[in-house]
Amino acid sequence: AQSVTQLGSHVSVSEGALVLLRCNYSSSVPPYLFWYVQYPNQGLQLLLKYTSAATLVKGINGFEAEFKKSETSFHLTKPSAHMSDAAEYFCAVAGAGGTSYGKLTFGQGTILTVHP
Amino acid sequence: EAGVAQSPRYKIIEKRQSVAFWCNPISGHATLYWYQQILGQGPKLLIQFQNNGVVDDSQLPKDRFSAERLKGVDSTLKIQPAKLEDSAVYLCASSLDSDGSGGAAGANVLTFGAGSRLTVL
């Protein structure tokens, strides 16, 4: 079984400050890991994905995430927050093969607020 | 390429009424997913199709929910009769393949539609 836990349902940062959104996963098979962003009244947009190549993954809009197997974590970071980053962020896990392939299991989401 | 199309975007119904949502995936995508996103929660998989066959419907409340994907292209999700707790956003997503045979690592990226927001009164 796979699961994802996002630590903190709300994160608030000042514009220009570091963004850190935490995600821990549980998976019985080698995982694929994803971060998606959801703006109000829109669908989910892929930010980045980990597929067992490089452990440090760079995504769109300056975001990156590091896969740490020993910590079962896949935290999302951005060095300098922008007002346009305000949105809800979801971490998700999928199996890399077998019957769990392709089936995303999502965390509960973290709402990011950016203050001027 | 065109994205995943969903309609209607918004629907308000009374409990015990029925509702249907439609999804047209990205052209050529074999796999189609329906997710339910309740306010304050992450999306939860309801059903997964590969072409016109069901791969996984273990989380679909089959006493009231049904879904079909005729001809392996677009799909319809129906709720009958609706309950208050069905109020949610219904997200459709599609992906190129579903069994890892696509070759490239991580080929199975899901592309989501904008969703259909259902309010049951």
How is this fold's topology laid out?
The complex is a heterodimer of chains A (116) and B (121).
Chain A: E1 3-7, E2 10-14, E3 19-26, E4 31-38, E5 44-50, E6 56-58, E7 64-68, E8 73-78, E9 87-95, E10 105-106, E11 110-115
Parallel strand pairs in A: 2-11
Antiparallel strand pairs in A: 1-3, 3-8, 4-5, 4-9, 6-7, 7-8, 9-10, 9-11
Chain B: E1 5-7, E2 10-13, E3 19-24, E4 31-37, E5 44-50, E6 53-56, E7 65-68, E8 75-79, E9 88-95, E10 111-112, E11 116-120
Parallel strand pairs in B: 2-11
Antiparallel strand pairs in B: 1-3, 3-8, 4-5, 4-9, 5-6, 7-8, 9-10, 9-11
Protein architecture, described:
- The complex is a heterodimer of chains A (116) and B (121).
- Chain A is mainly β and 116 residues long.
- Chain A is 0% helix and 55% strand.
- Chain A is built from no helices and 11 strands.
- In chain A, strand 6 and strand 7 (64-68) form a beta hairpin.
- In chain B, strands 2, 4, 5, 6, 9, 10 and 11 form a 7-stranded mixed beta sheet that branches. A 4-stranded antiparallel beta sheet of chain B has the order 1-3-8-7, with no helix packed on it.
- Chain B is globular and about 40 Å long.
- Mean pLDDT of chain B is 89; it is low at 100-107.
- At the A-B interface, strand 4, strand 5, strand 9 and strand 10 of A face strand 5, strand 9 and strand 10 of B.
